[in-house]
Structures are given as structure tokens and as C-alpha cells.
Design brief:
Four copies of one chain form a homotetramer. By secondary structure, chain A is α+β, with helices and mostly antiparallel strands. The first copy, chain A, has a single domain, classed as Chorismate synthase AroC (Chorismate synthase, AroC fold, 4-Layer Sandwich), CATH 3.60.150.10. In chain A, helix 4 packs across helix 9. At the A-B interface, strand 1, helix 3, helix 7, strand 11 and helix 8 of A face strand 1, helix 3, helix 7, strand 11 and helix 8 of B.
């Protein structure tokens, strides 16, 4: 469905970039789960623009929980989180709003919604909406962590600078890495922050933007989660990730590199260790046949360069169909790769809560 | 849901590799659509093993349409296609069936289904089930083609040999390429068949297997199809593709290569040509903000090397949890890349019929 | 799904009786539809308690639309309506909250939600939540009316007093009746208001409550809407109506009276009038085989007596499982029959928008 | 969705009255459940026409299970049941097929499917399709019974003859009654069979048909099953029942009789007995707030008189829109009330398996 994801644990997103508020409704979380407002606040901070490598738009992300909790715990009824928009500057968009920004949703929204779309700041297609994912996802991440399931996403590459990869063949090592990056405001595994930031600022100085790849790991997920054919674990996660604006691809485990391997290299041999089944390598990324195998769940998502750039671009005017030159104003991120990390972890958590609930019942996370 | 995909146009898959039959139920197709059994037969032939680079299992894929058609046309009621399994040799699996085949679903199925799963030939996780996708997809492909929408998938790379790419910035050229490869039993754009086959046989001779990348293009899809946030066109297609066994990643347009680009390179400028809006490049793969923009829809899917290989592999015995060495018998494909192409096109067609029906109503394809 | 109804046009409800607010998210309405706040206000007034026959709780039902509209028109993005709760008196519930109110959801909520439920004023199970249905339904009713589809519900019986029935065999007469009752704050067709109110007050004076039957009619619905088997028009409406608290049954057309008829009496003969197909009688209530036949859609829903009564009742204490006597405080309706009418019309409108969108596409209502 | 019901346990129905076969796909049943073909055969016999009060069409209902079982147990993969049609006489319908049968789906199907519908014997709208519900439902009924949950439906009234009602305030007595009627080929609680059959034959002799009311009881269902607002237990069951052809209304517990009661009469007081919570009466039919309360689940469904009657009827010719007189040939049931009983029990079982799986996880029924 349109702005809703999930079967048993269900997130609905509403709101526009320059509207009154972003609203996230998280339905189906088990009752009795702590809803920790401090943790939500901390998670929202990880998504927030924070320096010269991000947009100059500054939102406090003060939120209110309107329903679904009682005495600090979830009740089982839908949890509504309201995040008002405060720092909007629609005037930046007035002059050029009929000029379709290349590789943005302006043109497709115009066709689909017949010109009735709210174009201010990208409207419902803006990355601003992801604040709802992070707020709701915080509750999911928190609930999963109390079941021993941890989720983290780091910047695998940005602006051509490469971070090291999760060591996914070793569940304990991966878990330690996940816990570390999950709390970082610039989540990288190795010492690449300065180099990345430098390259981002270089692009920004040229009125340009950069992309990258983010890598998500989930540790502690039990084996046996996911359904064959269409509700597969990878199928569900791919659906979720590709719905995040700017993400244009996803690969599980060794992903596209598997195309160049032989089966004898790519296969993950099973063994037992301390009475637990595991695999010697993890090219499969923790998934066989759409179902979790108990190894770390690993996937990479590619984030395209932010389409909003300061350089002049050729485009058309939606009001008359004529050619036009676009010179963008407004406050834009030269790179959103860092900020997408927490969005990816949050949405992953919601998908996992849903699949765990489907598998083990609605009380599983209590 | 589990073995069902779609909202308005819905495919349900049932059957096992060595069971009596594969069953596909295609519900929600508009009434009055020709159901051409010859075309279904031809499409099934494209999926069928055909030479030394494929498995030695030979299925006739004779099928029967049990419901949903009347006088050769769809009625609007669910169309049931029954494809009996005839050439099964379960004995190949008897001896080793408790040994979990590495990177197969044996172990995860065992955990999820508690040992009750049908292990013969991979059971419900077998690639055999995709015969149902191709049969149902043939009806969808046929229906779309009468609306001017064409779909084709070719082998972009296999066993290290690279084919050329669709020229997706040019809608007419892409359409011509699509029409050409859609009918080929070894779908490649350039003269690479011999080289690919040689490398596949080389791996086979070493008891090994290879993987590759397939590229799918859709031409003629109207702009404005797809929903923001979770029913996005790319999200839906990613869900579908990742549900195909062996596919471990998907990328739209320039995909992972976007990570290394600047925004000024990656952005697709809009222009008008003969009164129609198009883009000068197509790094976006025909999708902006989850919605089709009218340009060719392009995506690549990575196919891992077939996990069934003849070489001895280390694994565990599911019956006792002990270490074991697996030496596989049975008839296996050294590469399934060629055969996955038609599966990808077929499933794409079903997803598109669904999204078009949701957008324009249930009679749209009539 | 839990608190969400619909496929293409989707309503999600959140909030509790004594929580901060009720939230309704209406997703999938066509873009370009006027969202008339005055009309929403008028519809909310029809649901509001208004005199001695209703609860003494008085809510202003001031609402805010947080998303999904732009320049007074729907954008196609989800419409969020926030209705703050202002007149809550949780103290009324403190003393007795562990005593399960007979025929309320206290006990079942306690079992299902493990004691974590918000018990104040019935929490998420309260009739208060229907304010969200009425607010969202107003948009749907308004949109349908511009397509010539009108919806009205009247009190067919209450406290033993009988109103006359819609004359559903005559489409034009029914439409006139519908338009009339749809705007009444005490919706009856004949002169029975005084008698009904007298009987309600009689019960109230005795610390008791009464029930009744409401009758809903829809005029102008095109033939051909609804799906066989499970998304049938009657199946969908029955699902919606039974989800309203207090409604314990539904019947279409002549309903339970059909049990005593012969086929020759019950069958609705077809004829043509002014070139349009209609039926001579309407025992079918406008539905054949789950699909609308173009005649007025008619159904009756039974509303049980309000379970909150002032008389002492025998029950158990949920905190210790022991027998207890319940003497209810709080402000309760001696009858909710009148107030349920507008809820039924509103929810019907949302279901119809969904089925029309599924049938004719997402732009149908524009 | 169209011909599919359920979220976790999912039934899809395909086939037409005079097509090759009826197909039921039951997905999501827990693995390891015995699939007892003898029991399915016995259940199908309960639905089968059996004497002069039923249609003369005689089907053997020989069925084949094509997938989803292994060694007699469910595997967790979709179970496909194929029931071939053998005794079809389409010629009966040839002459009159363009004459819309009053109160049948002929006209609505014609409008919805644009004339492409399979009209032979009612096509996909025929009661014949319910054979798939009974076959799949048998597996569900069997699985539930092993968890102590029993389901039975009897003829509460037919042709004006009244049976006694389930004694639903006494769980043990109800369970005994349920077990008794569940196996009867003419399911009544009291000695009314002869009278009912006499009245049915009386109508038949006059070329007419009769209707009735059926009553379904479920014993042993745990408290806490069902969701508030739209996936309510009553909402889901109402959706299912209303999707059965010929059923035009449903009421839970005391249903429409509640309209004439006071709250003090209608409320079900809670008490404890042998440490278990129960209610003293059961006007609620085992459901409070959409959630099961542990008491017997009781509901009545009204079955209209069979619309196919031998008497001449006024109608229109769909081929030219002109008035016509219809004199039906073909083999019809003067009453389907008896045969609908097992269909209602079967579909109830599938809905309950789904809700139990959603609540307690996919392995609950194993």
C-alpha cells in the first residue's frame, strides 16, 4: 500500500516538507514495550543535519507521542508520533517551483497528482518525511535490542572514499562493530571521516553533490525468519530500502560481486561451533532462500548524489512544457549518505519487528 | 503475503520440485484479454533447459488452464495454470537429503518448517517453481504488449563475460533492443554467446558453477505509475526480483555506479522532443521518487553462482547436527543466468499489470 | 489489518478516549478534491452529544488537518486529521478501573494486551475513536456527492419505537429521503423523534440503556462495483460496520426477513426504465453476487444497548480475579443509536471510495 | 483482495461451475499438520446434494492434493486442492444465458466483466465454488480440533420451520451440541428434519424455493483473539460469511434482538467458575470489542431463497436490453440452507486459523 508498510507491525507515514508536521503511526507493536523518549530524541539527532556537509535547514525535531502509550509503555494500540515542522522557508521554492528539478520527483509527482501536489520543498517526496521513520524506528530498534537483536548502518563509501566492511563471517565481531557504529553521528568503521568530509566539501564548493554506499548489519536475528516467494526477508527489506528517496540499489551479502565468483567460492559452508550452526563465510548475507540463517544479516544500499545542486541545469517548465534553465536556491545537502544511515537502520528494524511478529506472534517482542 | 504477490493483479504460486505439479493462480487480470496458449508455450521454452550449459532435467512443461478463460479470453475470474512435473528423480536426493547444501535453503527451511518440509529437489524452494511465474507472466506480457509496453531481459554478464548494455537514454533504440532479446533463447545484445557458453562449460568441467548479472528493460510504460513510500515502482520490483531464488541484489538505472558520480553527472536533465517530455540521460532508470517518468525502465539483478556444485563441500547433517562432507548427485545447472532472464521479465510484467490496474482501474489492460 | 481499512483508499485510526488526541490518516484519496473544513465541522456536529439522551461529555471536536491538502484541495498524499481530546475526566474511571464492565472490551483488552492497555474511558476501544471516522468520512462523503453518490443513515428503530423504512425500490424517492436524513441531527424519516427520546429518557431514569437498528442507504452508486469472494461489496461493508463498537449484526436488503420468503417473493425482477436497467423490488439491497446492481444500496445494522449503565452489575476484578459489584460512574449515553448513524454513513463512504478507486482507478473521484 | 481471504493463513479460490475444476490454495497452515484425505472426503459429503430437497446435479467431488503435503503432513508450503467438475450440463444454460436471472449475479457480472464472463452455470459466481472452501476448510477444522476448538453449524430455521438454538451460555453444553451437529448430514438440534423437508418439497412442487437461517458455534476458542477496528473477530467473520453466495445478513450473539433489549438485560455479567472467567449469559456471542472473550462464539447467517426457480419470471435480455420472460431449465436446489451449513463452518475455521496464527505465530496450530 501507498504510505504504509507491514502486515503485523505497520508503519504509516504522512506529512510534507513544508507542511505543519510529519506524522508516523506505528501499529502492532507488542504491548508492554518501553517507549523511551530520550532514545527517540537521540536517534533523531543522528539523522539531523549537523555541519557544513549537511543542509543548513535546522529542525529541532521536538516530537509528541499522541497515542498508544500509557505509563511509558506501549499499550498495543497504534502509536502516533507527531513531529512539527518549524524551520520551513517555502519562499526558496516559489520562484522556481514550476521548473522540474532533474532526478527529483517534481515531474513524476506532477503527472501522477495532476498538478495538485504540494511542491514546497518536495512536499511528500522530501527526505524530511524520513524523520517519521527514525522516530518510529527508534521504538523498534529499542524493542529488538531487548531481544538481543542489534542493527547498525555505516557509510561504506562516500565521495569515492572507502570505509572498511563489516566482518560478517564472525557473528561476535560483527555485533561489536554494529554496537559501535549504531551510536556514532558519523558512522564509519575505520578512520575515514576527515577524508570523506573533505571530499564532500570539495563537491559543495563546486555547487555539486556526491553519493555513496551504506552498509547495514543485523546481529542476533534468529534463524527461520522470512517467507518464501514475495515475503522473503530480502524481498521485504529491498522493498523498504528502495522506498527511501535516493536509494537506487541494494545487494545482500557479497551482492553484485557474486556475479564474478564460482559456486565453490561463493557457497557458505555450514559448521557447528559451541553447539550452534553457523557458516564459515557469509557471502549470502545471512539469508538462504529468503529466510534468515542465523548469521549476521548484511546488505549494502547505494545512495545517489543529492539531485539538488547549485549548478545551473537544463530542464522544462511544468506550467508550459518549455525548456528552461534551473538555478536552485534553498538549503540542500551536498551529501545525504550519512543521514540515510539511521533511516536505513530504523526502517530495517520495523521490517524485522513485522516479520518476527508474523512468525512468532504479536507478543514476541514484549 | 507468503506465496502471493500483488494487490489488484495477484499471482499465487504453489507446488514443489518433485511434487505432482506447479500451480499458478493469476487473479485480477482484466476481462477480455486473449490468453494465447501458443505464446505461453513459447515463453516456457525460453525458460527450459536446452543444452550442456543447463541441467539435464528435461520437463515438457505441458500445461493446462483450469479456470478463468472462456472462448480463449480472460473472464476476469482467477486464471489457474497447472504445469505437471513429469521428469523427477527424487532418488538423487535420498542419500544426501539430511546434508544441508551450502547456500541453499535446506537449513533455513529445516528451521522454519521444523523438519516437515518436502526436501525432494529443494521442494517449494526449487527454481522449478518459477515455471509458474513464466506461464502466468506470459499472459501479462502479452496484455502489456497490446498496450505498447514491451519487456526484455538479457544477460549483462555471465562467468566474467560482459554483454553490452541497453541504450536506455534513447527510448526508441531501447524498444528495438527489447523486442529483439525478448524472443531469444540465449538473450544477449552483442556477440558474446559463444564466449559465455565456453566459460560456463569450463566451470562445469571443474564441477563448479558461475553467476552473472541480468538486465531488464521496459519500454512504453506511461509516466505516473508507482506510489511514494513502500509501493514505489522500484520498491515493488525489488521485492519481486529478490524473491527469485539466486538473485541477491538489484540496482536501478546506473545503480551502484551512482555512488562514484557527482550530482552534476548523475542528474537526468529534462527536455521535450516531439512534444513529449524525456530526459537526456537515464541514470535514474526511468524512475523518480518511486514513480515512472516515461523513460525506459531499467534495472540489473545479480544472479549468484548456482549453489549446487559437484565438488565436495563441508556441511552439517541436519539429522544429528554433525559435520559431514557433501558430494552432490542430481542434475544441476552450471549457470542459471540465462534461464532467470525470462523469469525476471515475467515477474516484472505481473508487477506492472498490478500497478497499472491500481492506477488506472481494473479494465485498463482490456 | 489492525486499525487500518482499505486497499486503495485507506483509513488508519489512532488515539484513546482520554489520550491527547484522536488521529485519522486518510490515504489514497484522489488529488484535487476539495477538503471542506466547514463540512467536516458540520458532520462532526451530527455525531456530537447534544442533549439529555446523550452522554454529558462535551467535546468541541476542533480539528486540524496536518497533511495532505494544499490550497484547500487534496494532494493525493495522506490526509492527517488531528482531533484533540479536551473534556476528559479520567478520575471517573480510577476507582473502578480494574472491574471489568460487562459487555465492554475491558476483559478482552486485558487478556489481549496483558494489562498494558489504557483503560481510561475505554482507551482505544472507546466510541470516542469514531470521531476520526466521521472527520475522514466527511471528505469521502463530499467527494462521492460530487459524483452523484449520496449516503444517509436513519434510526430505523430505537427503544422499541419504529421509524418507517427507506423506499428502496424507487431510486429517486430513496435519493430524496437520503438527502433529507443525511443532514438531520436526529435522523428519522417519520414523526417518531419525540417518542424515541421519551423512551430513551425513561430508560435513563431507571439507570438503564437502550439499543436499536439503523438503516443506511446509498444512491447513485454505479453498477459493477465489488469483487466476488471476499472483497464483495457486502463483505467489505459488513467488515466495516461490525468493526464499529456496539454494532452486532448487519443485513442487506430484506435481510433476515428473506428467511421466511419464497424465491418467487424474494427475487427482484429486472426491467428497463428510460433506458436504464433497474429492478421492480429491491429485496437484494442493491447487491447481486457481491457486486452493486445500480439500485439503492440498503443495509440495516443493529446497535446493542449501551453497556455502560448506572445499575449495579455483577462482575470480576481483573486485578485479583474475584467477584465484585460494579457501580459505574462517568458520563454515558443511554443510547448511542442516533450518534452511530453518522459513523455508519462515514465509514460506508470510505469503503465505497476504496472500491470505486480499485475498480476505476485512483483518479476516479477527482 | 478479490478471491483471496486471510493474512497469515490464506485461502485462494478459482474455478467455474462448468469449467474443468475448482481449485483451492490454502497457504500458511503450520507445518506438521495431518492432512487427512478421508476427513476431507467426509466433509465434502456433507455439502453434496443428497436427495429430492437438493439439486439433481451429482458431483463425486473426487479431489487431488497437488502440493503442500509430504508424508501425509502439511509442509508449510501452499496446499493446492484440485476438485474436477464432472457432471456439467451447459446445454441447460445455452438457450437462456442472455436472460439475466433475477437476484443472481448474471447482470452484475455482465456489467463488471463486460460480457466476457463465463455464464455457464453461473460461472465463477456459482455455489459450486464453495466445494473449494469445504475441502480447504476440512484441513483447518481438523487442525483446530486438535487444539480443542470445535465448530458446528445447524439450520436454525428453514422454510418457516424453527430448530432450537445453541445453548451458548453454557460452554460445555454448547461444545456437546457442536460436536453432534458437525457430523450430521442434515444438521439440526431438535426433531425438525421431517417438517423442514416437507416444506422444502412443497415449495419445490410449486416451482419455488425457500430460505432460512443457519447458526454457527465455535467452542474452545481462547480469549484475546481478534483486533480492534477492522480486523475485529466479528468484522472478519462477517466479511467471510457475506462473501458466501445467498447469505444476506449476519448477527452475533443475540444480534438483532438486542435492539429491543435494555442494557440491564443485554449485558453479560462476568463471573469465575473453576478458576476460569466466563459470563452468565452470552448475548455478546463470545465477542467483546471485536475480541474473543472465551465464551462460545455464536452467530447466525440468513440464507435467502435460492433465486433459481422454475416459475416464469420477468427479466431483461442482456444481449439487447429488452424485456423478456425467463423459464429456467437446469438442476437447482429448492433450498441451499442445509448445504450452506458446512460451507459456513469451513470458512469460519479458515478465518480462525488466520487470526490464531496472527496472534500466536505461524507454528501455533502445529
Amino acid at each position: 500500500m501507498r504510505n504504509t508498510i507491514g502486515t503485523n507491525v505497520i508503519l504509516t507515514l504522512a506529512g510534507e516538507s513544508h507542511g505543519e508536521a510529519i506524522v508516523a503511526v506505528l501499529d502492532g507493536m507488542a504491548p508492554g514495550i518501553p517507549v523511551n523518549e530520550d532514545f527517540i530524541t537521540r536517534q533523531l539527532a543522528l539523522r539531523r543535519p549537523q555541519g557544513p556537509t549537511d543542509t543548513a535547514r535546522r529542525e529541532s525535531d521536538a516530537f509528541r507521542i499522541l497515542s498508544g502509550t500509557f505509563n511509558g509503555l506501549s499499550t498495543g494500540a497504534p502509536i502516533t508520533i507527531l513531529i512539527p515542522n518549524v524551520n520551513t522557508r517555502s519562499a526558496d521554492y516559489e520562484a522556481t517551483h514550476s521548473l522540474a528539478r532533474p532526478s527529483h520527483a517534481d515531474y513524476t509527482a506532477h503527472i501522477k497528482y495532476g498538478g495538485y501536489e504540494d511542491w514546497r520543498g518536495g512536499g511528500h517526496f522530501s527526505g524530511r518525511i524520513t524523520v517519521g521513520i527514525v522516530a518510529a524506528g527508534a521504538i523498534a530498534i529499542d524493542a529488538l535490542s531487548r531481544k538481543g537483536i542489534s542493527i547498525g548502518t555505516h557509510i561504506l563509501s562516500c565521495a569515492g572514499v572507502q570505509d572498511s566492511s563489516f566482518d560478517s563471517a564472525d557473528p561476535e565481531l560483527t555485533a561489536a562493530q554494529v554496537r559501535k557504529v549504531a551510536a556514532l553521528d558519523f558512522p564509519v568503521l575505520s578512520d575515514v571521516r576527515e577524508a570523506m568530509e573533505a571530499r564532500i566539501l570539495e563537491a559543495k564548493a563546486q555547487g555539486d553533490s556526491v553519493g555513496g554506499v551504506i552498509q547495514t548489519a543485523v546481529c542476533g536475528l534468529p534463524a527461520g525468519v522470512g517467507e518464501p516467494w514475495f515475503d522473503s526477508l530480502d524481498g521485504r527489506l529491498a522493498n523498504a530500502m528502495l522506498s527511501i528517496g535516493g536509494i537506487k540499489g541494494i545487494e545482500f551479502g557479497s551482492g553484485f560481486a557474486l556475479a564474478g565468483m564460482r559456486g565453490s567460492q561463493a557457497n557458505d559452508s555450514f559448521c557447528t561451533q559451541d553447539g550452534k550452526v553457523r557458516t564459515l563465510s557469509n557471502h549470502s548475507g545471512g539469508i538462504n532462500g529468503g529466510i534468515s540463517n542465523g548469521m549476521p544479516l548484511i546488505f549494502n544500499s547505494v545512495v545517489k548524489p543529492t539531485p539538488s545542486i547549485a549548478q545551473a541545469q537544463q530542464t522544462i517548465d511544468l506550467s508550459n512544457g518549455e525548456a528552461a534553465t534551473l538555478e536552485l536556491k534553498g538549503r540542500h545537502d551536498p551529501a545525504i549518505v550519512r543521514r540515510v544511515c539511521i533511516v536505513a537502520s530504523s526502517l530495517t528494524a520495523i521490517v524485522l519487528c513485522d516479520l518476527l511478529s508474523l512468525r512468532f506472534g504479536t507478543d514476541y517482542l514484549r
